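Service request form, structural biology core

Requester: graduate student, group of Dr. S.
Request type: structure prediction, single chain
Budget code: on file
Notes: please return the result as structure tokens.

Sequence provided:
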Amino acid sequence: ADAVTRNRLLLAEDLGIPLDWFVFPRQTHSNHVYRVVEGDRGLGSMDRQTAIPDTDALVTHVRHTCIVVQVADCVPVMLFDPVQRVIAVVHAGWRGTASAIVAETVRAMQDHYGCQPADILAAIGPSIQGCCYQVGEDVYQAFVSWDNTREEIFQYRNHQLLLDLVAANQLLLLNLGVDARNIATTDYCTRCNPGYFFSSRYGKGNTGRFIAGMMLW
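Core staff response, request fulfilled:
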């Protein structure tokens, strides 16, 4: 825990902002979205016990508040509406993706701030890619409500079932009306590039986490 705090302090110093401007959720692979208000600034930044409980996405329009999620193979999704000046960050593993957490987040942006999907800019950060994300039949069944769309995100290769979480989250955004031209992705695979990123699969569960965050000035 001390090493984590030291790293967070170094990050804050490098960014030139106080650590108590950060807000951390306590992630549970849910599809729960939390709206961050001014009084939440600093929650979870120094003490995990104060992190926002049972939450995997944060949305806010409060300035000088850095909302973050922690990942190590799961998909980090960052959303920005430049019209309403609203930001959101999402932690989407297979459970969160199956239960459409990124869609829940866009709906929260619509409900709380009047955002329009066509105005939203999305960035999908480094995560485990379809080349490496072998899953079991239970994961395939978790996507049963996706109907025919399942075949676009799963493939069998060498008798292995592989899931493309990036494609799945792109589909969710597109189906909500986010413009394809406004969705940025990366080909970096966390499992293939352990020298650059933490990877739970590569480390067999024993690994750190990297942060994806956003802040309005």
